Amino acid sequence: MAASKLPFRRETHPPMTTTLSHPSAPVVDTSASPRARLHPLPLAAFTLTDQFWAPRLTLVRDVTLRQQYAQCQQTGRIDHFRRASGRKHIPEFVGKYYDDSDVYKWLEAAAYALGTGHDPELERLVDGAIDEIAAAQAADGYLNTYFTFERAPERWDNLARMHQLYCAGHLIQAAVAHHRATGKNTLLTVATRFADLICDTFTPANPGTDGHEEIELALVELYRATGSRRYLDQAAFFLDQRGQQPPVLDGSPYLQDHLPVRRQSEIVGHAVRATYLAIAMADVYAETEDEGMWAAVQALWRSAFERKAYLTGGLGAHWQGEAFGGDYELPNERAYAETCAAIGGFYWNWRMLLLTGEARYADWMETALYNGILSGISLDGTEYFYQNPLADDGSHRRQPWFGTACCPPNIARLLLSLPGFFASTSHDATTGRRTSTEAGSAPSGAPGAGGAARDGTRGSLWLHHYSSGELRIEGPRGSGVLRVETNYPWDGHVRLTVAEHDAGLSEATLRLRLPGWCAEPRLTVNGQPYEGRLEPGTYAALQRTWRAGDVVELDLPMPVRRITSHPRVLSNHGRIALARGPLVYCVEGADHPAVDLRDIAVPAGAAVAGELRPDLLGQPIRLEVKRDCQAVAAVAGPGQRHAGRKPCVREVERPVEHTGSGQERRLEAGCVAGREELLGVRPAATRAPELHRVREVQRKPTVLARDVAVATTDHDHLRRVRHHRRCLPSSEAPACALVRGDRNASTGRMFTLGRPGPGTVPGCAGPSQRALAPT
């Protein structure tokens, strides 16, 4: 591509001499990005104290990071660097050519842990790994342990397949995170030397880019950390290599190389690569005037999240190629939904939120986090899912590691950076006018009104997600502490208290996300109702002069919602999904070995309610459905067994209830021992002896976020539903939601709910899904 087509003038740059960003900078630093509306807070600004996230993050820091480091040692990933440096004699490279990236992602995760708490042992492991990496770097700055010694002549060959720049990108991200967390430059020096070599190597005279996107977004963050413009230029250069004629890569949609990026409007190809491409495009736009890039990112987002996303934020329908399918092609059993793709979707929506302040992006972040990402790690923090099909035959289980181990450290780095995604700030010089993403302001004199006028003179504090903790704001005008108390996601009551304040917080506009799933939010300030308009899927703006002791209470009612899919999602005809708050529920046949799930039906009129179970792990909410068995059994439909062939539910000596080891929740369909009961989970200590066989079958239970239960099944051949999988929708107003499933003698059966119907109700997860009236 000609130099004139680059969005920036390329220059020859000296080595980095600019001032580095502050060590406490956010995960993604848009504080100086001209196109960003919101600016994230430092990672340590929000201290989590809740019972949902805080214990999980502690587990990831204390257990998961150690387990993953041990796996990197045992599988030779650390030894790769020792071999490359000559510190350890290893005759040949054994592993994958992209193994380096797993070490880099682990380092990034560990850096976030160090940024939020002192851990001498972890710091020792990190410093030791960085020492091995630095020793392996070549004199010219090149660093890839696969392309050393006998493969050194192959450097930069086959960029479409060999992930050299992809690995470099994860090195850069780890280095930036490590510097921001610790203030050290040890890894950043290594990364900038490599980045400088990359910038010197790939030019208009020597074009190239990587088949797996990652280097682009990493270079943008390196630009933000160092101030060196060459890295931003190089990121844009790499983006512009795609879709050229003749192709720089292979010209395929699989590598997003079929069209120039500004002309791409449909999300295609490998799902993780596609999301990373979109992230990079959003990052480049945030720093530039490239409106063509922004238009393309928005079109790609609509393609992904309005027509190709699963209900739980999973992305990628095809096992072959780990790729997106066509519009509304969302199979259940054949879903791939890689954990890394859901994480990519989370990061992409974060960029979109920072650029626009629109609540729909935060809604999708929440959906993916609780349902499509948390399923990827076991409750004990040592086993993982790579693929997340929506239904399976019981053979799909978590593993402690993989030959391609991209997902485990990816989950770790997201979870350990999670406090950085809860809140952000904005300078209202760009947000002083009302937008469609904000709920109406309170009238003058009403709670929430007052303070400075909306003239762009006051800043805003945005709360995107809710969890108990303390949020500390530091700014040029002072500081403040906002205390958050909630039992989210089990309960929608959120209490905010101004604990400390000075000029920095007293004049801020507080903006609270009203989730799109919440039909009737309620808001009070010091006990007085907020008199403005509260619109789901927006932010409520509270403008007043804040004083210590002020209390804001937000209520987000969580009735059980019945969700149906778009009629074009053929695999979901005859199905509904059940959701409560941000959580999607699922059904697991292993919990009902004495019940033929094909004989169970849940009528549309059946009451479904949530019940707090303090006796269960995590004190979750279970769903309970009550209905007369005989009435349910009388309903049958095409392709289903006639209910008269067997009783609706067989009686068993005891309820068969299964918790496994995880943060799971399930929709148990059936009357056990003659009782009208749906959904129950019991701790392992209370399990009946007959459960041992089930536990053996599912000794590594799948997990979604604790309250996650979905009624789902594949249209052609149904098997059992695994609770960590997404529940797939069905109809708008089914006369009766019928259950179907294939018998599996050892693992149970699965079932689906619902029957197709017309109409779309806004405010669900997206146009691919619809909502029925809350139960």
Automatic annotation (TrEMBL):
InterPro entries from the UniProt entry: 6-hairpin_glycosidase_sf, Beta-AFase-like, Beta-AFase-like_GH127_C, Beta-AFase-like_GH127_cat, Beta-AFase-like_GH127_middle
GO biological processes: carbohydrate metabolic process
Stored Pfam families: Beta-AFase-like_GH127_cat (PF07944), Glyco_hydro127C (PF20737), Glyco_hydro127M (PF20736)
Non-reducing end beta-L-arabinofuranosidase-like GH127 catalytic domain segment(s): 47-418
Domain spans labelled Non-reducing end beta-L-arabinofuranosidase-like GH127 C-terminal: 560-608
PANTHER family linked: DUF1680 DOMAIN PROTEIN (AFU_ORTHOLOGUE AFUA_1G08910)
Record-given protein name: GH127 / GH146
Species the sequence originates in: uncultured Chloroflexota bacterium
